[in-house]
Give the backbone structure.
Amino acid sequence: TDLYTQEEKEKLAHLIQRNTKEEVCLISAKTGEGIRNLKELLARSIPEGYGNRMITGDLVDTGDLVLLVMPQDIQAPKGRLILPQVQTLRELLDKKCLVMSVTTDQYLSALENLAVPPKLIITDSQVFSYVYENKPKESMLTSFSVLFAAYKGDLLYYIEGAKAIDTLNENSHVLIAECCTHAPLKEDIGRVKIPRMLKKRFGEKLDVSLVSGTDFPDDLTKYDLIIQCGACMFNRKYVMYRIDKARNQYVPMTNYGITIAHLTGILEHVALP
């Protein structure tokens, strides 16, 4: 408004309001007058539910059939489900989806007993390859870890980071970054399975380090790749802090599910929210 007289401001505001049928907010860049009104107007204009990120994004909607493949192995708490499974299941129920949950050994039987193929199959990343090889052609496939890569982090950055896997060699240094802390488990996905997959491809001399909890190095430049867990125990703000830290030091970063999908050659076939 600093460029106009009071009469000009009133005429212009009236003209804009008449032509757009929208409320007009006059502000001054010099004095800040009207800024508070602008903020209040913007706040009132925000659509209901804006900013509420969804785990499954736009992959499924009301009435869609979703099959969850959830191995209940040593990594699953006895008598309980792990947090990503619980959160995903709850969201699907809120979306009024039809949900069927099975363990890996009942996967084929479940498909045989369904009248129609599921719209979406969500699997644990460690059985990605098996589920993909046996899925119906019509069904989309993703994993809990891939969904959480988008929900908690930057999915496109993770996918771009996965390309760095192909540039690794036996002299490379990889950092596995877990967010939760737990006692080492047999066949642990971050401590055992992913390092084994990497070393099988690039050699046993490949250096794989691991940090857990809030332990995350300030200097990341010695690493050729960072592989982040699904971060179900941390909020998105903290995960984005890690991502920005890696990005600012030009170190590629990806996550568990994206890594496994890339290593098994099915990433391009995975449904992304």
Summary: The chain has a mean pLDDT of 90. The radius of gyration is 24 Å. The CA atoms of residues 67 and 121 lie 5 Å apart. The longest strand covers residues 65-69.
